[in-house]
Automatic annotation (TrEMBL):
It holds the Pfam family Molydop_binding. SUPFAM superfamilies: ADC-like, Formate dehydrogenase/DMSO reductase, domains 1-3. Residues 12-75 form the 4Fe-4S Mo/W bis-MGD-type domain. It comes from the Bacteria. It comes from Roseicella aerolata. PROSITE patterns: 4FE4S_MOW_BIS_MGD. This is Molybdopterin oxidoreductase family protein. InterPro entries: Asp_de-COase-like_dom_sf, MoPterin_dinucl-bd_dom, Mopterin_OxRdtase, Mopterin_OxRdtase_4Fe-4S_dom, Prok_Mopterin_Oxidored, YoaE_C. Keywords: Iron, Iron-sulfur, Metal-binding. Belongs to the prokaryotic molybdopterin-containing oxidoreductase family.
Length: 711
């Protein structure tokens, strides 16, 4: 892995960086730089967490600790490729950068002349969370008047639910978890997905004897470490939250003075909840009444009770309503008033970025259509509900994402990418499933090989990611690719004439922060607001400063008519029935991050294979044994995986931890084949954890799979 390289000095000298991946932790890193005989940084060795950062606190996940596996991977893309075989075949030949960029620009120019500029769709997401390298694609989009993108695949439902009640993104300092007496992890698995949460949980348990409760449909690594695991049925979190509020009013734990001062409709809420007690919630959630009562009493009696809202339980058709219901809990009980109390989802608004330069907002035309990224399959197969009166999408530029595997309804997605009239350019680090459908593939840098600027959602630090090693082969950064295309397309904007570091520096200063060099001198900048603001003592984010028990859903999204007026269980999920008796959740695998790290040997060895977690009694009824093959299906298709028996979930719940590449499944297509691309109300959002399926023993080795692969 490090042939020809030597340590930069005696082993143990590190340079500061920031983890770029799609995780709220945004860890502050120290990366060992390996140099060649001339002293040039050519690779990396050990990666560790920065102990001096008060949130990272020296702890990072195993995935990133093994990052040298990615940087030095033998399958890494190093030169531009031109497709020579059928789409999806992975057959390419190497070409030069000039030819590659010329081909992409010519294809976009030709298609624009034929169909208009909206026929080109720059498609991206969070393969890097750096603001310059991730979001710069918008600058090209806006200048060239290409189709816009509605970002729904990750946070849209969380955003709707949080904003409905709270009204602005922010909340109690995440480090306050260490000062809480009760921490409730609701719908998240930080052992796998944001490990630093567990650092602060551990501190609270050790120093204060704090209790740790996890609400999750199955026994994750986080749930296994909890004092209490509430294994709700998928999609029923709102019912549990309502029952806890019912008990708070019933037993005198409601902070009536607080809700009178700080909320909009306390009397309406109390009357509404009168019929939503633990018996009602038990029938919906599957939790015993005694367990609901015990959790409610623990929560209500603990002043310093901190709810950390995860993303998982929002990825359902009722996800926005469920998250809103959970945020009502600290309002009814007045927990926001206390240090170590309240609720937290994301700090994204505290940075008040001016992204005009990064995104080319000064060139944006609001009349240009915006396409839903979660419905890329429908878009590419010509669904007029998505395209409107505009042209078909005939040109794609893809950075930082792998939609052939990641997007819902992946069978439809794959059909769309297979269109012969669709020209696709993918800028990637590996030959992903999406890259295999590209006409031109461009090799991309990794985070240690370019400059970038980072914010965190999960804590409060502005951080930098300087270029500390040279890119291998002919890899280029996202910004460099956009510059090259802009020159060929005639896209004029000052951002295309600046370096990534210059853009980051200018953005920092325009946003009211010190510049790059000043922040670099201190490694990071803590932007956490003061206690009064973070705990909403100065008011929630609505104009009158009051929390909304009765949200204005119409102000949040067009699909608002289905939303409940007050917090409730919104019975809009893909419910189990006689034909599809199981509810499936496609939770993240611990060693992967979306489809990142699925190529690294360490991660693959630990994950082994795609697996379905089944309750033992379900397995017995089905005639399935540990390690046996099972077939999962619904109207969208069928997938075969290996069964693993797991008691930490209710009967009728099946968990398939993902996201594995398509080739790791017997039929050559992954679990998102079964996931609908229905948009969750009120403003869209992918519903990855809201799927009803049947489960059967896979008795025939290839039954139906050749047909499915051909489709």
């Amino acid at each position: 892995m490090t042939d020809g390289l030597v340590a930069s000095a005696p082993r143990g000298e590190f340079q500061g960086s920031t983890c770029p991946h799609d995780c709220p932790s945004t860890c502050a890193l120290e990366v060992e730089v390996l140099r060649d005989a001339q002293g040039v940084g050519r690779g990396i060795g050990t990666v560790r967490g920065a102990e001096a950062n008060s949130y990272t606190a020296g702890v990072i996940c195993a995935k990133v600790a093994r990052y040298a596996e990615r940087v030095h991977h033998p399958d890494r893309l190093l030169r531009p490729l031109l497709r020579t075989g059928p789409k999806g075949s992975g057959q390419f030949r190497e070409i030069g950068w000039e030819e590659a960029l010329d081909r992409v620009a010519e294809a976009f120019i030709e298609r624009t002349a034929r169909h208009g500029s909206e026929t080109v769709w720059p498609y991206y997401y969070a393969g890097t969370m750096g603001l310059v390298q991730r979001d710069g694609i918008h600058r090209l989009r806006h200048v060239m008047r290409y189709s816009g993108q509605l970002n729904t695949i990750c946070t849209a439902l969380c955003e709707s639910g949080w904003m409905a009640g709270v009204g602005r993104y922010g909340g109690p300092d995440p480090r306050e978890m260490a000062e809480a007496d009760l921490i409730v992890m609701w719908g998240g698995n930080p052992v796998a997905t944001q490990v630093n949460v567990m650092t602060h949980v551990s501190r609270a348990r050790k120093r204060r004897g704090a209790k740790f409760v996890v609400v999750d449909p199955y026994r994750t690594g986080t749930a296994a470490a909890a004092d209490l695991h509430l294994a709700v049925r998928p999609g029923t979190d709102g019912a549990l939250a309502c029952a806890v509020m019912h008990i708070a009013f019933r037993d005198g734990f409601a902070d009536r003075d607080y809700i009178a001062r700080m909320s909009d409709a306390p009397a309406d809420l109390e009357a509404h909840l009168a019929a939503r007690g633990p018996d009602w919630a038990s029938a919906i959630t599957g939790l015993p009444v005694a367990e609901i009562e015990a959790f409610a009493r623990l929560y209500c009696e603990t002043e310093r009770a901190y709810i950390r809202c995860g993303y998982g339980f929002s990825r359902s058709r009722n996800g926005a309503a469920s998250l809103h219901a959970v945020t009502c809990l600290p309002t009814v009980t007045g927990k926001w008033r206390h240090k170590g109390g309240g609720a937290f989802w994301s700090n994204r608004a505290i940075y008040h970025w001016d992204k005009t330069l990064i995104e080319g907002l000064d060139a944006r035309d609001p009349a240009i259509r915006v396409l839903d990224q979660s419905r890329i399959g429908a878009v590419l197969t010509g669904d007029r509900r998505d395209l409107g009166d505009g042209p078909p999408v005939t040109g794609l530029l893809i950075q930082n994402t792998n939609p052939v595997v990641v997007a819902p309804a992946s069978g439809t997605v794959r059909r769309g990418f297979a269109r012969e009239d669709l020209f696709t350019c993918v800028h990637e680090q590996f030959l992903t499933d999406t890259a295999k459908y590209a006409d031109v593939v461009l090799p991309a840098t990794m985070f240690v090989e370019h400059d970038d600027l980072y914010q965190s959602g999960g804590h409060s630090h502005i951080q930098l990611g300087p270029r500390i090693v040279e890119p291998p082969g002919e890899c280029r950064s996202n910004h460099e690719v956009l510059q090259g295309l802009a020159r060929r397309l005639g896209a004029e904007h000052r951002g295309f004439r600046m370096t990534a570091r210059e853009i980051a520096d200018a953005t920092l200063r325009a946003s009211g922060w010190p510049g790059w060099e000043e922040i670099a001198a201190g490694r990071w900048l803590d932007a956490q607001p003061d206690f009064a603001s973070a705990h909403f003592e100065t008011g929630f984010g609505h104009q009158d400063g009051r929390f909304r028990f009765a949200p204005d859903w119409a102000a949040i999204g067009a699909d608002h008519a289905r939303m409940p007026r007050l917090p409730d269980h919104m019975a809009s999920i893909d419910a189990a029935d006689g034909e599809h008796p199981f509810r499936m959740v496609t939770a993240p695998a611990r060693q992967f991050l979306n489809t990142t790290f699925t190529e690294t040997p360490g991660a693959r060895k630990r994950e082994v294979r795609p697996t379905a977690l089944l309750h033992p009694r379900d397995a017995e009824r089905l005639g399935v044994t540990e390690g046996g093959r099972v077939r999962l299906g619904n109207a969208q298709g069928e997938v075969v995986v290996t069964a693993k028996l797991a008691e930490g979930q209710q009967e009728g719940v099946v968990i398939v931890e993902s996201i594995w590449p398509n080739a790791d499944f017997e039929g050559g297509i992954g679990i998102n084949l079964l996931v609908s691309d229905d948009p969750g109300p009120p403003k869209g959002g992918a519903v990855f954890h809201d799927t009803a399926v049947w489960v059967r023993p896979a008795v025939a080795e290839t039954e139906g799979l050749e047909r499915l692969a051909a489709e």
